[in-house]
Structure formats: C-alpha cells, structure tokens
Hints:
Layout: E1 13-19, H1 26-37, H2 41-54, E2 56-63, H3 64-81, E3 86-91
Antiparallel strand pairs: 1-2, 1-3
The chain binds L-tyrosinamide.
L-tyrosinamide binds at residues 18-22, 24-26, 29, 48, 51-52, 85.
Amino acid sequence: MPKTKPKLERPKLYKVMLVNDDYTPREFVVMVLKAVFRMSEEAASRVMLTAHRMGVAVVLVCARDIAETKSKEAIDLAKEAGFPLMFTTEPEE
Ligand code: TYC
C-alpha cells in the first residue's frame, strides 16, 4: 500500500502594507516604521518613499497574528498623534 504522507499545510503569510496619505509627515512615517517594525533609518525611508510615490508599499511579510498586531500598533501610534496614517494586512498569494 502506498504510504500516504500527511500533508502539513504551511500557514499562509500576510503582507503588511503602508498606505500613502497627504497629511502624515514623512518623518513621522519613518519614526513609526522604525519603532514598530524595527527597521533601520535607511529601510524605513525607502519604504516610506515607495508608499509616497506608488500609493502603497510592502512593510513586512509574516504570520497573520503578527501582521495584525503590528499594523494595529502602528495605526494607534498615528491616531494618538492625530495623523490618518494607515496600514493594511492582506494574505500573500
Ligand atoms: N505623503 C506624505 C507627505 O507628503 C508622506 C507619507 C508617506 C505619508 C508615506 C504616508 O504611507 C505614507 N507628507
């Protein structure tokens, strides 16, 4: 009898996306990326500029719970400071 290997589904990965807006200062976006996503100044500036120019940028690809927790943390920081900065999460194809 052929051995049936139990298929272990790999958990789906999620993307955290940074969304551009017209009001949040660039420096604030960079600060949030560094504080919440532990990015270097250079990486944070690059991602911020990509979102600024293209409308959105991928910040992180990770497990769903981490993606959701981190994007909420980042949105909350912006809310406290009175900025409309937005992060979204979506499953990777
Ligand atoms: N567009 C903003 C500005 O010109 C800066 C910004 C960049 C805001 C990226 C959000 O995801 C963002 N002040």
